[in-house]
Amino acid sequence: MKKLLILSAITAALSANVQAQEQPKENDKWVAGFVEYYSADNSAKDSPNFLNDGYGFGAEFGMKFSEEWGARVELSFLEIDVEGAFLDESGKRLGADLLYFMPEDLLYVFGGLKNTKITDADMMASVGLGKHWDLGKHLDLGKYQAYGNNVKIVTELAAYQNLDSHEDGTHLGFKVGIAYAFGGSTAPSMPKDSDNDGVLDSQDQCANTPIGTAVDSIGCTLDLDGDGVINRLDNCPDTPAGTEVDSYGCKNDLDGDGIPNNIDMCPNTAPGTQVGAKGCSLILDTDQDGILDDVDNCSDTPLTDKVDAKGCSIFTEEEVSINVKVLFANNSSVIGNSNASQFQEVADFMDRYPATDAVIEGHASAPGSDDYNLMLSQKRANAVRTLLIQKYGIKAERLIAIGYGETQLLDTANTAEANQANRRIVVKVSASTRVNVKR
User: Fold this and answer.
1) How many CA atoms lie within 13 A of 219 on its CB side?
2) What is the C-alpha to C-alpha distance for residues 73 and 91, in angstroms, rounded to an integer?
3) Could you check whether 2-182 and 318-436 share the same CATH topology?
4) d(CA 236, CA 232)
């Protein structure tokens, strides 16, 4: 017991020295409960009353004096198999350790004295290696995350050397437990100014002001001319008070022609000039496209069209297409609705776009062999092609018929409805057309 008191005194002295140098950190204390496996040294198994393997449980209290140093006391209750005894022996172990924590709490090493009382009272020296695993870093605990950050899993491997003369040998122990960290204090946090505009976050009503931007007392960008547009976006920072401005902070009608800047295609019209709906002189730009009449090659351009440098509408190419579906009876290539309006629509479409070609796809249902279905689908495609040529006057060279058999089923179910849907013709024809680009 005397040796244990000596170790405690040394630990207290070290802690006092470290505390004088560093302030305690947050969660610098912990309590833990653990279970332990005890393994005896094989070299002494022939000795009477030799302590053999066993188990135990206990608790510890520890504290860190700095980022590196700490100390703890522990109490364990053991159930050990004693060589030569009829029953296991119960006992307890009381001890203290000094701990050194490696950088970033990777591991810690420890050493100390343990007073173990089972069959006799023995003083043991202990050394070992352990780790506190942060539970909160590995688990998503939702609203309980703050508690999880304080909970740690303790793992530890220790070696014990009996200091009394009647027993030699080194014994091993492995323990696993759960610790809860608490206590300590953190340095008072400095008031934050996240956007570095000189206004603290607690008073900043515009918390994400760009760096270098001048702000007012509540952290918002200055608007020196009071027109409602902040200086950073204001292209006219000296607008007279009361002036109606646009989104750039400039007078809403710079040339005073009565047409707002955002739709005025002639923003510098001379004072007194009679203008049209787009702000351009009626005398100089009759169709109001922004191109003066003397250079305008398209003098009647619609107001909605965007124009080029010669005043003519700008066009872009758009794709237009038409799809037709034709259904057939089972094992048939006869078109039952040859007068259907959809065939006339195909003919009209191809007349409207004479440079187009059409692809007629024939498809069959799943029943039957692959070769038969391929042949049948080709016959169906040929039937539609013949109809469009003979009845609707489409030139043969503009029509291509392809049979796909059962390779492109719409419905893979083996039902009458699925088979009917799969027996079909699809006519695909597309063309490009010019459309006006809008202003």
Assistant:
1) 20
2) 17
3) no
4) 11
Helix (H) or strand (E) holding 128: strand 121-134
Is the Cβ–Cβ distance between 301 and 307 less than 8 Å? yes
Strands (E), 150-224: 151-162, 170-182
Dmax (CA) for the chain in angstroms is 124
Domain range annotation of the chain: 2-182, 270-313, 318-436
First-to-final CA distance of the chain:
96
Q: How far apart are CA 308 and CA 315, in angstroms?
A: 10
How far apart are alpha carbons 152 and 155 in whole angstroms?
10
Strands 399-403 and 358-363: parallel
Number of neighbours of residue 150 by Cβ within 10 angstroms:
16
260: tokens are 């707002």
Given CA atoms 291, 294, 296, 302 in this order, what sign does their dihedral have? positive
Pull the structure tokens for residue 344.
Answer: 């006339």
> What confidence tens digit (pLDDT) does each residue in 184-236 have?
654 445 678 888 888 888 888 888 888 877 787 787 777 767 788 887 788 88
Domain range 318-436, CATH architecture: 2-Layer Sandwich (3.30)
Q: Where are the beta strands (DSSP E) in 65-120?
A: 69-82, 89-101, 108-117
CA dist., res. 121 & res. 100, Å (int): 28
* Amino acid identity at 253: D
Beta strand 170-182 with 151-162 is antiparallel
Alpha-carbon gap, residue 162 to 170, rounded angstroms: 7
- Provide the β-strand partners of residue 358: 399, 429
Closest to 436 (Cα-Cα) out of 313, 283, 332: 313
Q: Quick one: tokens of 324?
A: 């037709």
What does the pLDDT look like over 63-100, one tens digit per residue? 998 889 999 999 999 888 766 665 677 889 999 999 99
Q: Does the CA dihedral 251-255-259-261 come out positive or negative?
A: negative
User: How crowded is residue 355: how many other Cβ atoms within 10 Å of its Cβ?
Assistant: 8
Question: Domain 2-182 classified CATH 3.40.50.1220?
Answer: no
**Whole-structure pTM over 0.70, yes or no?**
no
Beta partners for residue 55, in sequence order:
37, 79
Q: What is the DSSP letter of 373?
A: H
Q: How far is CA 92 from CA 22, 56, 88, 158, 310, in A?
A: 35, 9, 13, 16, 102
Structure letter (DSSP) for residue 23: P
Give residues with Cβ within 8 angstroms of 66, minimum separation 6: 18, 21, 22
